[in-house]
Amino acid sequence: MLLIASNRRVVSFLVAREYYESRWLRPFLDLIHCIPVKRDGRDLRALRAAAQVLAAQRVLGIFPEGGIARSDVRRGLGWLVQESGAAVVPAKVMGVHQYPSDWRTWATRQRPRLRYGVPLHFLERAEPSEILGATMSAIATLA
């Protein structure tokens, strides 16, 4: 929500399919053109839809870890940048604790802070692993 509120443009996100299927969340997710994605890390349909968002020069928010509170990095970001040539603007949300329960996370008073880095531009021939590594390094420096 902080990323959406801090931008003048609509930010679309890849959203776990189970959230997208929620009756009370879906109208909001549709409003900002979110893309439902399977959590197994192999959802090519979602990646193609994300590439279309970038081709239309819209903003796509991606958690390279595959979610808000995960630590393993997924390769989709590298592929999307390689395919689209889009710039990457690193961002880091700090001061938020993700609880096992989404309800508890939302109900607990927190003091989030958001920092943006400088846009990263990559050469056409940049490898997805290079794109991902540079992006994660840029995010790490935002502390």
TrEMBL record:
The keyword Transit peptide does not apply. Keywords: Acyltransferase, Transferase. InterPro entries: Plipid/glycerol_acylTrfase. One of its GO terms (molecular function) is 1-acylglycerol-3-phosphate O-acyltransferase activity. Residues 2-96 form the Phospholipid/glycerol acyltransferase domain. Its EC number is 2.3.1.51. Pfam families: Acyltransferase. This is 1-acyl-sn-glycerol-3-phosphate acyltransferase.
